[in-house]
Amino acid sequence: MDTPLGHRARGPGSLWTRGPAAALTGALPALTFPVPSWWWLAYGALVPWLLVVRAAPTGRRAALYGWLGGAGFMLAVHQWLLPSLHVFILVLALLLGALWAPWGVLVRALLGGAPSRGRVAASLVLVPSGWLMVELVRSLQYLGGPWGLLGASQWQVPPALRLASLGGVWLLSLLIVAVNTALAALIALPAARPPAVAGLLVCALTGAAAWWWAPLPRPAGTVRIAIVQPGFGRTPTQRLDRGAALTAALAGRGVRLVVWGESSLTRDPADHPALAARLAALSAHTGADLLVNADAPDSGRHGIAKTAVLIGPHGPTGDRYAKMRLVPFGEYIPARSVLGWATKVGKAATVDRRRGTHQVVMALPAAGGLRAGPLVCFETAFPDMSRRLTADGAQLLVAQSATSTFQDSWAPAQHASLGALRAAENWRPMVHATLTGISAVYGPRGEPVGERLGTERSAAAVYDVPLARGTSPYTRWGDWALQGAVAALLVYGLTETARAVRRRGAGRPGGPGAPTGQRPTRPPR
Fold first, then answer.
1. 3-class SS at 34?
2. Pick from 244, 229, 254, 265: nearest CA to 452
3. What is the pLDDT of residues 53-82, one digit of tens each?
4. Residues 367, 257: contact at Cβ < 8 Å?
5. Helices 480-507 and 117-138 sit at what angle, rounded to 10 degrees?
6. Most exposed: 3, 80, 165, 283, by fewest CB within 10 Å?
């Protein structure tokens, strides 16, 4: 039978002190991402926020602390957007932060007051599951996409990358929040030591088991690929000329694919024969296929799109991919009729880009038919897109990006780090090529390959990229960690509903468990 653990904390504190504390503690996990990249902090960064929320005097106050903490987290993780969105970033942070309000209620319900040991044990599953639901909802494209998922902070930790191959970034987030929940219980509820320590041991053993026994991809040779990064501060014409010069210098080096960054062209080669001929000559000169990217009206004149175009020695091969998931406010404005005023206070998109309709796997003739799956910009943040390309037969993932607007911020390093996760999840190498840095390459286990091209570089770099055979568990089984979290929350919701119904029934006169009296006897006649 569950036993109580302590007493409800007295003196809830002032809203004017705990509200700001919730916002500040919610912002703390942002330090786990690049540039600081204090990945180890992730395993305790949520504890202060959890302690503030669990001590809330009411469920409504817990929801408020969850909201404020979520807003603080969103603002800190996206602080590099401030020069572009100005005051509008505060509006976005408050809107997205509201997703953590139900999570705050859940935290207080499970850890607030004097919870039983059984309830503390349940919190080690349900609090992480609630967090995962927040990450899932805010990962929807129209809510900004999955930038800053907590599990992504572990991009440079080999055991964590091994876990990602089993359950994706979602499994990493789940385990990180479970560790934080156990630590918060140990601090606030000393009598909760047995379930909390057991939870920490389970998390540690899960990581160790994955490191020792998780399957690994099988080597399948290498392919030589080059990244061309022209650098910052160039006009479109100068950028094209610099990219062409860097590409021409690669002749004779055995390169099979040359990748240019996002928006490397402002004209579609399909509509400009002279440009197509120039690129085809570069392909013939280097002996490599070129993957360029045009930010221009498409060949059908249906609108401006960002399109990856494959170029061979005879011109465009016909393989092309139009970016499907656009950056909110950067490439389109959601509900422009309502939020269009964002263009007046920042650098929001004045014209909406056109979305692509489907993903594409391209065969690379110069690489013997090697199949490559292109992604554009922050599409690397979406786990499902890389997984779908891999399932469709991609042997190589290629991302084209441009973060020149945010050159002096944390954004380039954060963006480049995502390639390690996508590679490890799917056992496929990832090439992340940008116009201005940071460009990087990762092997099929998420390990770095060769040099990184920083934001100060204007250069071409050649990589012998390791290929792999096999299908990772995550590619095969998908988002089972998310599905398990949903199932856990549903069971909890049904259980709590049933208990509430029983309590209401017990409180009704004549209901089950209600006090009963003896039937009055008739007086004798």
1. coil
2. 229
3. 999 999 999 999 999 999 999 999 998 888
4. yes
5. 130
6. 3
Q: Name the amino acid, one letter, at 513.
A: G
Q: Which amino acid is residue 157, in one-letter code?
A: V
Closest CA relative to residue 71, chosen from 126, 36, 130, 30: 30
Nearest to 94 by CA among 65, 78, 74: 74
Report how far residue 524's alpha carbon sits from residue 341's, in angstroms, rounded to the nearest whole number: 88
**CA quadruple 146, 106, 179, 52: dihedral, nearest 10:** 100
Please give the pLDDT value at position 337. Answer: 52
User: For the chain, first and last CA: distance in Å?
Assistant: 53
Structure tokens belonging to residue 513: 């468990």
The C-alpha torsion from 243 through 248 and 250 to 253, rounded to 10°, is 160
- Which pLDDT tens digit goes with each residue over 89-108? 898 899 999 999 999 999 99
- The one-character DSSP state at 78 is T
Of all residues in the chain, the percent with pLDDT exceeding 90 is 74
Strand extents, DSSP E, 421-473 = 430-434, 440-442, 459-469
For 372, the 3-state DSSP assignment is strand
Please name the helix (run of DSSP H) or strand (run of DSSP E) that holds residue 293, with its range, or none.
Answer: strand 289-297
**Block residue for tokens 């998931």:** 325
What does the pLDDT read at residue 8?
43
For residue 304, which amino acid is it? I
pLDDT band at 511 (very low <50, low <70, confident <90, very high): low
CA 156, chain centre distance (Å):
15
Q: Which residues contact 247 (CB under 8 A, 6 or more apart)?
A: 226, 228, 258, 260, 282, 286, 290, 460
Look at phi and psi of residue 322 and say left if phi exceeds 0, alpha if psi is from -120 to 50, else beta.
beta
| Residue ranges of E strands in 161-288 | 218-229, 257-260
pTM for the structure as a whole: 0.90
Token pair recorded at residue 284: 């013939």
Residue 35's Cβ-side half-sphere holds a number of Cα atoms within 13 Å equal to: 12
Buried/exposed code over 331-363 (b: 16+ C-beta within 10 A; e: otherwise)? bbbeeeeebeebbeebebbeeebbbbeebbbbe
The pairing of strands 304-312 and 289-297 is antiparallel
Q: Check: CB of residue 457 under 8 Å from CB of residue 424.
A: no
**Residue 493: its H or E element:** helix 480-507
> Which of 150, 154, 51 lies closest to 108 in space, CA to CA?
51
pLDDT digits (tens, 9 = 90+) for 479-499: 999 999 999 999 999 999 998
